[in-house]
Specification:
Layout lengths: L1 E3 L7 H6 L3 H5 L18 H11 L5 E9 L3 E11 L13 E12 L5 E8 L1 H8 L5 H11 L8
Parallel strand pairs: 1-5
Antiparallel strand pairs: 2-3, 3-4, 4-5
Protein name: Putative pathogenesis-related family protein
Organism: Rhizophora mucronata
């Protein structure tokens, strides 16, 4: 069973239906027009490409502190990387993008994971990814500002 801050728990089959890792983590109740990343429109492959393109050197997970051990493992983490590629129409910034969170893993007597919960603010991640200039409108804005290109974009 997997659970993400404030969301209902989901099992592995439901996680697969949502499109796997990125899509299940990025579930949101925001209106569709406000979503910088819309997991409802993404596939496993498109989400993977979006994030690996934005973070070509990777998006590391760093365990900062472990608060308790088995059978209930609780730890604080930092997920981070440098945005060196575009993300959903936003230019790369080269800046550090990071988010912090708490994870809780419950394991059974065989150390098999029974339940997982993550608590984090997805907005930290998306805010960093959407900081760059809007690539979709920048061409038009540049063309209209240039006397030689005016009326071409």
């Amino acid at each position: 069973m997997h659970k993400h801050a404030g969301r209902k728990p989901i099992n592995l089959e439901e996680k697969r239906k949502l499109g796997g890792g990125y899509n299940s983590f990025m579930q949101t109740s925001l209106p569709e027009k406000l979503r910088g990343f819309n997991p409802a429109e993404e596939t496993v492959d498109s989400a993977h490409v979006a994030f690996t393109s934005a973070f070509p050197r990777g998006f590391a997970l760093e365990v900062l502190q472990v608060y308790s051990g088995p059978p209930l493992i609780v730890y604080k983490f930092r997920h981070w990387g440098y945005m060196e590629g575009p993300f959903r129409g936003h230019a790369p910034t080269g800046e550090l993008v990071e988010l912090f969170g708490i994870a809780i893993f419950e394991v059974d007597e065989n150390m098999k994971i029974v339940k997982v919960e993550f608590f984090m603010d997805r907005g930290e991640l998306l805010g960093g990814l959407m900081k760059g200039a809007n690539l979709n409108s920048s061409t038009t804005e540049l063309a209209s500002g240039c006397p030689f290109l005016r009326g071409t974009g």
